[in-house]
Amino acid sequence: MPQISRRTAELGTENAFVVLAEVNELVRRGKDVISFCIGQPDFATPVNVQDAAVKAIRAGRHGYTPSAGIDELRAAAARYMGTMRGLDIRPEHVVVGAGAKPFIGYAILATTDYGAGDEVIYPNPGFPIYESQIRACGAMPVPLHLREARDFAFDPAELEARLSPRTKLLILNSPHNPTGGMLSRRDLEDIVAILRRHPDVWVYADEIYSRLCYAGEFASIASAPGMYERTIVSDGTSKTWAMTGWRIGFTANAALAPIFTRWITNTESCASQISQWAAVAAIEGPQADAEAMRASFLERRDLIVRLLNEVPGVSCRTPGGAFYAWPNVTEACRMIGAADSEEFRKRLLAEAGVAVLADIHFGARVPDEGQHIRFSYAASKQAIEAGVARIADFVRRNTRAAA
User: 83-95 pLDDT, tens per residue?
Assistant: First the structure.
């Protein structure tokens, strides 16, 4: 049988979907599982957005569009992203894709050369597709560690130490997956001061959770003087309007927009026209549903953090945004005799019927930072209360057994 390429064999994945498949199989077999593993709003897409999609279908708007997206959505996204960031973003600088995720790869492909030793700095722990795409595109991944003591921001001195003449791209994600951490304006000022000494480094600003901020206002590095020109601003509809399956993301950068358009032509051709018209309605229509979702996530955040901090051996910082909690379970692992967070996760699923992700699903474990697991609190309050209660019982029961 012919062999597959080494690049394909080594291609990473997003373990949230791997664990979700495992959970679905357990549920199919009759196991009662409460899942916190997938980062997806549990709300319905707003009705006005659904109606816009149906209207598009009835109007025959279901063929190809220009690769960069329909003019109406590019203009709406330009106004939306520009207003949030205090920038004058022009529609021709915006490119629409089938979700925000493809632009991670396009940004790496546009700024690095395969096998040339070009480096990309990315947050660790972080969205696993960053490292996967860096490797697949033939660049060198350089992890930038996020620290619990900094509420999961990084030390600017560590960023400066990792920058070199080989650095082509810096990936920033705020609010952050998996920790829920946010980069403050002061953090961004420190980062900008460092980057001014490295003018040849591009920045990929993954801001898909920009509307889900709870600890202060959202801030973008693109808003700093002179930074928009070298920043790829990435946002989309998935998280704000519960449109994950509609697959609409958009980026803005004047120099790279034509290049991203060419990549889309070479890969997906264009995003779904139906979804694009739905996205126009999401951006330009009433925002009451989006604000209600945000308010619900904030209530759930406060609930899950309070409950997790009552579990023996667990400590959880309050995340500033997104819909993730990243509790430290180092002591809980010790108490029940689990070697690490991955064993803790597996036992939690098998014995307590609670599905979470372990820190190693988001990159190599950060040295001296202990053991962590990730919760997506895009789940009902009832599920949060029942799930955390199961965890507390699991820890207490297994601590007695270990003793």
Answer: 999 999 999 999 9
